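pasting for the record
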Amino acid sequence: MKMEMLLALMNIMITLFFIVPIEKSSMAAGKKKTKAVTLKMAQQCQEMLLDNKWRLDLSFRGITTVPKEVLMLYGRDEVNLSRNLIKKLPDFCETMENINVLDLHSNKLEQLPATIYHLKNLQALNLCNNCLKGVPKELGLLNNLQTLHLGMNQLKVLPGSIGDLTELRYIGLSDNQFTRKPHCLSRLKKLERVNLDRNPILTED
């Protein structure tokens, strides 16, 4: 009987010896690793659109930073960096002036660099679902901007310079902390739609 118990105990120890390391390695392998953006990756993520423009799609990559060298080389017309873990953007360079569409929704952005004004040809900017508590006044220098998505952030006010976006047709401000419609929007003559849904707008007496 003692021999049987000893053999059973030895079998348990042998099983634990081999199984536990395997489980640990499996758990480690299951963890998502942050991927660094490389030039090769960026090249593979390019696609030509129907209008002969180029789009760089780096969405769903788990990236936390954006090497500006990559955007300088491959960010030609449209850049999609949505659904990542980006907290901060690099200072924009004048070499990125050709970008028409910049999609940064569903990241962890806490602020925008003032140098965003370099994106002179930007027509659509998506900043939905981030952690923005404010936007720089330099955003008002994007004279060609037609669509601006700022929903699902923590905004309470907009800089008055937003009223200088003379080509703006749509601005999304839903799911923020606005208590009234920003006054600067009244200066936008081409504005067709404002989305202020799910804000704590105060009713006027």
